[in-house]
Write a structure and sequence with these properties.
A two-stranded parallel sheet has the order 1-2. The chain has a two-stranded antiparallel ribbon with strand order 3-4. It is 43% helix and 6% strand. The protein has one domain: Winged helix-like DNA-binding domain superfamily/Winged helix DNA-binding domain (Arc Repressor Mutant, subunit A), CATH 1.10.10.10. It has 6 helices and 4 strands, in the order αβααβαββαα. The chain is mostly helical and 127 residues long. The structure holds a DNA duplex (13 and 13 nucleotides).
DNA sequence: GCCCTGACGTGAA
DNA sequence: ATTCACGCCAGGG
């Protein structure tokens, strides 16, 4: 048969998986998710998918935010408050209107590995 | 098909 | 810190 009429979007699947893989208590940016899904530069697609997915998808959508740590919704919107509430429930707090990525960012795990060479004397101030 | 909008990102002013 | 311009591209009208 001539395969499906429905496009079967592997990219969507990849994005879906990437979002589902964000650990609780951690957050990731749209762009980060896109990149992880093998689609660098496609941050908007991530947002679009989340919009379409809705609650039914059971995805941790609240763990996805902008690259600067701000939530993608208007500060007084229903969605904003809900996202903030869900994050708080996982220990992720906001400072002002943004989440501190160096502290809660998912990529932080990877960074830590690359930035913490235990064998190096580290010419950082000893005190 | 053209135009506009958008859960974005980045660099420049 | 803000604002603007672009780049990206899927949908909707």
């Amino acid at each position: 048969m001539k395969s499906a009429q429905i496009p079967l979007r592997p990219e969507h699947q990849a994005i879906h998986d990437a979002i589902a893989a964000i650990p609780p208590g951690r957050v990731a940016s749209y762009g980060e998710i896109a990149a992880r899904a093998g689609l660098p530069g496609r941050a908007r697609l991530v947002g679009r998918l989340l919009r379409e997915a809705g609650e039914a998808a059971a995805l941790p959508w609240h763990r996805v935010l902008r690259a600067d740590g701000t939530l993608a919704f208007a500060p007084r919107s229903r969605a904003f408050l809900e996202q903030k509430r869900r994050l708080a429930a996982e220990g992720v707090s906001l400072r002002g209107n943004r989440v501190e990525l160096p502290r809660f960012g998912w990529q932080r795990d990877l960074d830590a590995e690359l930035w913490a060479p235990p064998a190096s004397p580290a010419r950082r101030r000893s005190g």
